[in-house]
Design a protein that fits this description.
By secondary structure, the chain is an alpha/beta fold. It has one domain: Response regulator (Rossmann fold), CATH 3.40.50.2300. 40% of the residues lie in helices and 22% in strands. It has five helices and five strands; from the N terminus they run E-H-E-H-E-H-E-H-E-H. Helix 1 links the parallel strand 1 and strand 2.
Length: 124
């Protein structure tokens, strides 16, 4: 990622992952702005009035899939880079991502420090 990432929104129903990601990202970049949502509807509402540099979106959530979230986000005509978050790389998900221009890749749970550094543009 070539541009600076200062604001990240996470949409994932896993609150434990939120705590781990918050701690690790703030350690790597103390001034990072992080927004975490377990409920995708709340995240969509937040995005109505706020901007972020990156959206990290869980593929599988109880309220809706990440793909359904992207469909609703598309209706709002928001432009934000999206990384899909998954526990396993399902070829069907990779195929689905080709339908969404905002999706720039996949991240595997749990996020490793090297991946977080890469997201933030921090070179070791």
């Amino acid at each position: 990622m070539s541009r600076m990432v200062n604001r990240i929104i996470f949409v994932d129903d896993d609150t434990i992952q939120h705590m781990i990601n918050r701690k690790n990202l703030q350690r790597l970049k103390p001034d990072i702005e992080l927004f975490f949502f377990e409920n995708p509807y709340n995240a969509l509402e937040w995005l109505d009035g706020n901007e972020a540099d990156l959206l990290i979106l869980d593929v599988n959530m109880p309220e809706m899939t990440g793909w359904e979230f992207l469909d609703l986000l598309g209706q709002k005509e928001k432009s934000i880079e999206v990384k899909m978050l998954t526990s396993s790389m399902d070829p069907v998900d990779i195929e689905m991502s080709l339908n969404y221009s905002l999706v720039s890749g996949f991240l595997i749970k749990p996020l490793k420090n090297e991946i977080m550094s890469e997201i933030l543009g921090i070179v070791p």
